Amino acid sequence: YLFETQPGEVLLSSATLNGRNLLTPAVIRDISYNEIEFVFEFTQPLDPQNYQTYFNFAPDVPVTYSLDNDNRRVTVRNSASLDYYAQYLILINSNLKSVQGYEFDGFSKSFLTGLNPEPKMPLLSDEALLDKVQQYTFRYFWDFAHPVSGLTRERNTSGEIVTIGGSGFGLKAILTGIHRGFISRGEGIERLQKIVTFLGNADRFHGVWPHWMNGSTGRTIAFSANDDGADLVETSFMAQGLITVRQYLDANIPQENTLIDDINALLDTIEWDWFTRGGQDVLYWHWSPNKGWTMNMQIKGYNEALITYLLAASSENHGIEPDVYHRGWASSGAIRNGNTFYGIPLPVGYNYGGPLFFAHYSFLGLDPRNLSDTYADYWVQNRNHTLINRAHGIANPNNFAGYSDVSWGFTASDNPFGYLAHGPTRDNGTITPTAAISSIPYTPEESMEAIRHFYFILGDKLWGQYGFYDAFNPTNAWWAESYLAIDQGPIIIMIENHRSGLLWDLFMTAPEIQTALDRLGFNSGQ
Are 33 and 113 in contact (CB under 8 A)? Predict the structure, then answer.
């Protein structure tokens, strides 16, 4: 008889990292950045002369090896700290063999490190830190503005694309820059005149600008296939900025008086009422000369567009009736919520509040401090929306990495998978600094804690040329390298409203705003 013996095989009987089982499909997260210990138990003895060569890390990790238990147990320890909130892969090559020559199928497992809580940036006082955040964020709207129009680019990779809403935020950023001494008044006025002149020559549709345009030519750039015309909500963010600038200017200075006239000429020709689409009790978001009303999107609350209805009611020549606000925006009261989330009551809007930019965009100029109507007290609304957003980060029901009482904020931003309007009910592990930072008027202590964390503890990854990068996702070891106008704008503006009330105070002095608030049934404490 002829027979062959089958070669044996080497198996892993156990594998742990800091005591946690690696032989499961579960993702291994929150591993200490400065202390790791792998223990691998093999079923056959390994060759002590060369076993280490079959162990690899990506990215590379400085480690030491030891072999015991009859050469069956490999212990691997780090000899230097790992990066924090980073993904690593350990690989045991399939060329590994036992002393007897038995073969091994190979093994690989990724793991994610946890937070390194040590400061990465020089410590500053809170006031100095707020100065720095505002100054760096200002650069996005000043240094990186489009050179021809002065308008704000959609994002840091947008080239010619400028955004009307983000440029409206940019107007307030320029006022903040003058106020903080980042630029002179003369420099700011010159830039503002350049912007306003360009806007007067740019594409408008019934007085309404498109969402995107070419920053050199002022011609429309389609936002989507059917959205190649007017965008009423983006235009309202621009109009909010224009009114704020106008209220800042001094009519006794000839150059500034000219700018006041130019701004009024733009504002007076916005046909808000035309966007009721023939007299309906609701405003429509879009209209296009090519596609008409194909977008067919009604502007209904609760979202970022409260300011759109207020400005539509403020127009002398193209104003809307109060019923358009009450039946359209407020859906005859259906806008109310009244439930509690994480023990916090929410007056209006979606369950859990939705993305936090709802508490920012309309309130960059509109002062919520004493603002109420039949549906809500808007200070309570915005503060509680923020507290619910933070409470979600603390509760962390999805068990994402990096969430805490100082690391939270869920709003629209980039993420590892693209872009999403994040919120407690649309949570993929992405934290967006603008959310927590821009709520600083509503939650000064909680937001300041988040700013300190983002800057001092995460700043080596999260801070760059124009301040905080857009977002980060520790669960996926992902860090944005992007800046978005609509995320940067609320940071500098709402910090200023927290510090001095500058933009709120200016906007609320506009006579047409007080008239509109009265018409729609608001109490503003004015």
Answer: yes
Q: Name the nearest CA neighbour of 313 among 325, 305, 301.
A: 325
Q: Coil, strand, or helix at residue 134?
A: helix
**Whole-number Å distance between alpha carbons of 494 and 365:** 9
Q: How far apart are CA 204 and CA 287, in angstroms?
A: 11
Average pLDDT, the chain: 98
Reported as a single tens digit per residue, the pLDDT across 31-88 is 999 999 999 999 999 999 999 999 999 999 999 999 999 999 999 999 999 999 999 9
Query: Does this model's pTM top 0.85?
Result: yes
Q: Are strands 9-10 and 103-104 parallel, antiparallel or unpaired?
A: parallel
Rounded (10°) CA dihedral 331, 335, 338, 343: 160
Domains of the chain: 12-113 (2.60.40.1220), 126-519 (1.50.10.140)
> What proportions of the chain, in percent to the nearest 5, are helix, strand and coil?
40, 20, 40
In contact, 63 and 78? CB cutoff 8 Å = yes
Rg of the chain in Å (alpha carbons): 28
Tokens 């498109």 locate to 210
Q: How many whole angstroms from its chain centre is CA 139?
A: 18
Phi, psi of 449 (to 5 degrees): -60, -40
| Tens digit of each residue's pLDDT (9 = 90 or more) over 166-194 | 999 999 999 999 999 999 999 999 999 99
The CA-CA-CA angle for residues 482, 483, 486, to 5°, reads: 135
pLDDT in tens, 136-155: 999 999 999 999 999 999 99
Token pair listed for 413: 């931003």
Alpha-carbon distance 447 to 439, whole Å? Answer: 7
Q: Tell me how far apart the terminal alpha carbons of the chain are, to the nearest angstrom.
A: 106
Adjacent-strand bridge partners of 31 = 113
Quickly list DSSP for 428-465. Answer: SS-B-HHHHHHTTTTSHHHHHHHHHIIIIITHHHHEET
Do 181 and 498 contact (CB within 8 A), yes or no?
Answer: no
Q: Which residues of 15-49 are buried (b: 16+ CB within 10 A; e: fewer)?
A: bebeeeebeeeeebbbbbbeebebbbebebbbbee
Three-class secondary structure of residue 318 per DSSP: coil
451 class by beta-carbon count within 10 Å (0-12 exposed, 13-18 middle, 19+ buried): buried
Distance, in Å, from the CA atom of 504 to the CA atom of 313, rounded to the nearest integer, reads 19
